[in-house]
Amino acid sequence: MAGQDLRYDAGGLSMVGSLHRPSQEGIAPGVLVFPEAFGFSSHATGKAARIANELGYVALACDLWGDRRELPGLADVTPAVEALASDAAALRCRVTSALVALRAQPGVDTTRIAAVGYCFGGTMAFELAACADIRAAVGIHSRLQFPSLDGGASGIKGRIMALLGADDPGNPPEVQESFARPLTEAGVDWEMTLYGGVVHSFSNPDAAEKGQPDMLRYDARADRRSWTQMASLFEEALA
Length: 239
Description:
36% of the residues lie in helices and 23% in strands. By secondary structure, it is α/β, with parallel strands linked by helices. An eight-stranded mixed β-sheet has the order 1-2-4-3-5-6-7-8, sandwiched between helices. Helix 3 crosses helix 4. The radius of gyration is 16 Å and the shape is globular.
């Protein structure tokens, strides 16, 4: 089922998400799907459609850069991501605006919301968990640094899951440890899975098109496993 365009404002940016509903009628939990750092794409909308069709949740594939803009390459992505990641207020506005838009939709149980993000979208999901009352946040081949973690993780009430390639150059052991320590200290229910021999963007079949196979590469087995683990967490957290 095709998604429905959903327009919302985020700090003056015109955002255009894609809303996907399950086939059954009635009230259902909601899931925000934050895209990879390149921006809004068929990867994010495809995941949102699967969440609606297979898991039975109302899913919003979120815009990232406004007007569904997709950045063409890493040379454009890196400065844009670093600028947003270093501006906590802007990042929180970006994620909470999407949350408000989803909660305003008919048929969404506003008390049962989760988020999943891919690449920088995982950063966004984790930041949302730190500044809003959601049940769970999942980061898939995600960055592990997010602004609220610098001051500890006491704001996180929901469950946290990070699903990563063990050979992802962006998440060496010291970064994993700096992510895990404050979560443990704050008593957060968190888990992390590393997939051996897997790098970044393993859930995106089009990853190789970016021309960085040592960094960005699809892995069908890790993609299947991450989907199953995410679905299991959502089933528990959104019950």
